[in-house]
Design goal:
about 325 residues; mainly alpha; about 75% helix; about 0% strand
Length: about 325
Amino acid sequence: MLKRNDTPEPAGAEPPTVAKARPVLRRVLHLIPLVLLVAAGMVLWREFRHLSFSEIAMAMGDWGYVRVAGAVALAAFSFWLMGVVEWLGLRWAGVRVPWIPSIGVSFLANAIAHAVGANLLVSGALRARLYDRYGVSLAQVAATTLFGGMSFAVGIGMLGGCGLALSPPEQITATAIPLGLARLVGWGLISASAGYVVLCALRRAPLRAFGRRLALPSAGAALGQLVVGVVDNGVAAAIIWMLLPAGDVPYQTFVGAYAVAAVAGLVSTVPAGAGVFEGSISTLLPQAEGAPLAAAFLGYRLAYYLLPLIVACVALAIHTLRRRAA
């Protein structure tokens, strides 16, 4: 029974303790990326504190023109593969944008989103602006962005899973990953990626979650996501691997560490996973030489992040000026 001065809480209202905890939770969530960045910086300092700039520059000088050109070519090929996924995603969303514009929009969206972080949000906003002239709705932009995100997820899962599950035991034991854990995680990732394709093949009814309906791609489209995602992530991993000394780390072993580090960098929400990605690989591959590994990280950031970002910003500026002049 309520006393005279008691006021009943409205139906569905949050308890006062929950309402008070929300601002604290938001602050904690905002601090997580900073904490991860600091932790990654400490890992990198521990791994590379004994190196001098001259040692890293010498390691970069050992690349030669062929490997530098190869790294840039692999980065360009990776962005082209993202454009293929973009085109498939647009078709799945029910729109027909010409091939060349879809490749161009994909490059601009991914090059900028990779560098500044918040990939899905930033790339989705850029797509909405650039596809406006083709009559693509916001719902179709969101579907295309989600399609690309799933392609990355199943691709990195299958690639990293194969690296962890199928690498010879002596290669796994040379890393910091226990053999049993590597096999367990590897087969789990393979099962999850393959399970996505099977789910798309068997279920035609939309999925329902949080009051929303989500139609699954066809089995063929899901298989295309998986294949292109695996190749794309494999190409991105090869950029770093080819800049390392020959025979330093077997590719299939490196791919497993790359997949774990890429996911860690993405989940951290630190822009471009900077520091978290490098710190994860350094920890997972303790046998890799310090100077060549640090140089390979720098080459990867230049070829896969900085150079595409510069090209994308210039292209976007030219596009904006032309639209204003029209």
